[in-house]
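Note to self: the last two entries modelled the partners one at a time, which told us nothing about the interface. This time every component goes in together.
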Amino acid sequence: MNDAQWPMPWIRAALEPAILASLGEAPLHGYAIAARLADAGMGRLKGGSLYPILGKLEADGFIVATWQPGESGPGRKAYELTESGRRHSAELQQQWAALSAALAALGKES
Amino acid sequence: MGTKNAWVKALKDLRGSKDDLRWGHAAFMELANAGVPFAVREIELDAVAAQCHSSGEGPLAVYGEPADWGRARAEELREEGVQFVVPPSATKHAGLFGMGWLAVGAAVMMALMFEHKLAQTPWSVILVLAPLFFGGVCSLLGWVATAFRGRHSKLFGGIGVVVVALLASLLTVLVVEHQPTSSAGTHTWWWAVIAGYIVLAVVLSWIDFHVLDKEVPASPVTDEQWLAQARGVLLTRGDMLDAEINSALDEAVGFAAQSGSTLYGEFGEPASFSTAMPKSRARTWRNLCFFSGFWAVWVVALVLDPAHAFTCWWAVGLVLCSLVCAGMWCWSAHKAKARRN
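The predicted structure of the combined assembly is written out below.
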């Protein structure tokens, strides 16, 4: 992960909600998720950081993977949010928003 | 591997919780698989213990899952410029670990059988060496299956397993039928055999802890080497279906190709990549049946009649276990194919 706009520990902590949010509109394959997060300013995510989280989300039932055979190269998986994944994503977004608001309030107090 | 170190004591003393200790070991192994040197791992875990001590909470509460923490911390250490080392060879460790436990099992089995059967049985070489021979055949079967599976040939893998099983059965029949026996098998001799197995287990464990832990600086590998190593590590795990391994590696290749980077650059050490892959319950259960089946047959054979029934039971057991193995193999492959379709 480099070229990120925020400190690395923040980005690592936010990866799970960020990945879920990136799948909100349409199913994406691994590299497209990484590209989406890079566009959002989270830096270029390496496969070694992305796939463990995808695996965990899949094991928890928040996303499902569908295998797509490659036309000229190796096949790849497209990841899609499940219903529980959508709910979980919405909850996480709310929690992050609350955290951000709490942080902003602390700043104003000081 | 670090079991007597300060961080272990610190985590143990922290709250007296076994969960904390388990967390420490899991995190330590995650860092090891990523290639973090031993000395750095100790420093990291010392820092974890100190943080937990000051906060009064366990490492799980403070740092989350050990695998997640280990993976993220390894990445940070790499970015900080720490020189990584070649991770401990899972194959070598598993081999020595397996042989060590085989020796312990052999000693226990011998001791259990001693009072019931062996003391009244004429001394014979095959009975003394049976546990090791038995374990050797198991390992050979596993190795043949793994080696052929790595080359995508299920048919040849199956044939290889059956051929090894048949040869082992034939060898057993020949050795048992023509074994030299004598009545010199005294209590002292039998206890010496049991002690010998215990010494063997201790020696193997010493080699595992002290010889294999020599660290060599890691260097990036080519994509072909990475794929071969990753396939080997995933196969050695023994709990992933062939289709799952192929799918994971294809996915990794696709990701690296699109990012324009190398597989090593994207995913790090193959051992670390392996720990991120989920387990397959079907394969785990198959392995359990396979190996426990062998042991069960051996125990039954010895209890029933070590002199005669042993040969027959072993031969039948080998063939049955091979058939079970082949059947479950086909079933799991079929299930994986159906899941992908």
